[in-house]
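Handoff note, outgoing to incoming analyst
You'll be picking up this chain. Sequence as last confirmed:
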Amino acid sequence: MPLPTVSLQRLDGSDFPTSALQGQVALVVNVASRCGFTPQYEGLEALYRQFGPQGLVILGFPCDQFGHQEPGDAEEIARFCSVDYPVSFPLMAKCEVNGEQAHPFYRWLKQQKPGLLGIEAIKWNFTKFLINREGEVVERFAPQTKPDSLVEEIRALL
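Most recent structure output, in case you need it:
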């Protein structure tokens, strides 16, 4: 099923249409600034710098649903992602990825690629979804999967 037409909002409040992902390879990650996996920001940025010019888009979705590890507001998150772990890939507005208030984009991702045993719920921060140029979710990666281990999968899709 191709990308849904849903409204995404950047951390700064500006719109980010899902149509901007058409023809791109996308890696979608729910992120948090106070998580044991937070150092993965460095690996995500390295992937973005290496493969962005070839058509890779990384979207970071701050989420506070796991251990209250993203308690800050948009301004605090933006500061963290410019000072502590400087990233240049797009950060979306803070959202929920599970439950009744889950963002529609995350509902779609989870339906397209459930986790182990067919369970759709995101288990923790830094769960990753890889979307091909046709807008299909081709893989879901666990939080502990380091960004640098995704190089071959990303290269194959580019």
